Automatic annotation (TrEMBL):
Full protein name: 3',5'-cyclic-AMP phosphodiesterase
InterPro entries found in the cross-reference section: Calcineurin-like_PHP, CNP_phosphodiesterase-III, GpdQ/CpdA-like, Metallo-depent_PP-like
Organism: Pseudomonas baltica
Ranges where the Calcineurin-like phosphoesterase domain occurs: 16-202
Keywords assigned by UniProt, alphabetized: Hydrolase, Iron, Metal-binding
NCBIfam families xrefs: PRK11148.1
Gene3D superfamilies: 3.60.21.10
One MF annotation (Gene Ontology) recorded for this entry: 3',5'-cyclic-AMP phosphodiesterase activity
Classification via CDD domains: MPP_GpdQ
EC number(s) reported in the record: 3.1.4.53
SUPFAM superfamilies listed in its UniProt record: Metallo-dependent phosphatases
Main enzyme class: hydrolase
Family listed: Belongs to the cyclic nucleotide phosphodiesterase class-III family.
Length: 271
């Protein structure tokens, strides 16, 4: 666990989420014809324009598409211009050992961070060799400890896989398989306020289980909401910002690149 000194407990915590960047080793690498390094750089530039103060930057998985050290180094280089404490968690395309190597000497993979009146816990929901997610016992125990040890804090939980159905039939089987265990645990702790995830490459904002449930766009390719089969959306890459208020409320929104035009190449390498 790490404690971040700013802001004060009576000030909002500004958190920025980047998700599903899907970088590859090659600088000109693309996903369905989109150069994911370039789109990440554009999103980061927009973050810098729109967020004068950031207290925590969270990357919610699939930083890499090919699981290479070079892709993690590229992600680190692209985001280092954001002068804020940073945390990463793995997605199903990531290679945890190489993430560890890239993060050596940093706190990027520390799973718990205290900032202002909030505690942010980052969980590993990946299953080796599978696109679906599961929270292993050690992850549930980590979360339980983080909640139990800080009853005076408001809590935000971050992971990669979606813990609720999102209305896209093709992606439901590769969500979080033991979401019930997550929500049963969170129900025991009234200080739990929200759950934030990636994986679905689209914006979701709901209230359920007494929690704010949030998913966010990719910094690259977007998935078409409500699709029965795999389908891409032509909406622009983006990021989510959150204002974690001292009273436990969450103010949040999504910002997408303006004047962005892209036609996916469905014959190119993809997801």
């Amino acid at each position: 666990m790490s404690s971040l000194s700013d802001p004060a407990v009576d000030a909002p915590v500004v958190l920025v989420q980047l998700s599903d960047s899907h970088l590859v080793a090659a600088a000109d690498g693309a996903m369905f014809g989109l150069n994911t390094r370039r789109s990440l750089a554009q999103v980061v530039a927009q973050v810098l324009e729109e967020q004068p103060r950031i207290d925590l930057l969270v990357a919610t998985g699939d930083l890499s598409q090919d699981g290479t050290l070079a892709s993690y180094q590229a992600f680190a280089q692209a985001t280092q211009v954001i002068c804020a404490p940073t945390r990463w968690l793995p997605g199903n395309h990531d290679e945890p050992a190489l993430m560890q190597q890239a993060a050596q000497g940093t706190q990027w993979l520390e799973p718990v961070a205290d900032v202002g009146a909030w505690r942010v816990t980052l969980l590993d929901s990946t299953i080796a060799g599978s696109a679906a997610g599961h929270l292993a016992d050690d992850q549930l125990q980590l979360l339980e400890r983080a909640l139990a040890e800080a009853p005076h804090k408001h809590h935000l939980v971050c992971l990669h896989h979606h813990p609720v159905a999102i209305g896209s039939q093709w992606i439901e089987p590769i969500g979080l398989r033991n979401a019930g265990a997550l929500f049963e645990l969170l129900a025991r702790f009234p200080q739990a306020r929200g759950v934030l995830w990636g994986h679905v490459h689209q914006e979701i904002d709901r209230h359920a289980h007494g929690l704010r449930l949030l998913a966010s766009p990719s910094t690259g390719i977007q998935f078409l909401p409500g699709s029965e089969d795999f389908a891409l959306d032509n909406r622009a890459p983006g990021y989510r910002w959150l204002r974690l208020m001292p009273d436990g409320q969450i103010e949040t929104g999504v910002s997408r690149l303006a004047n962005f035009t892209f036609t996916p190449d469905l014959d190119a390498a993809g997801y």
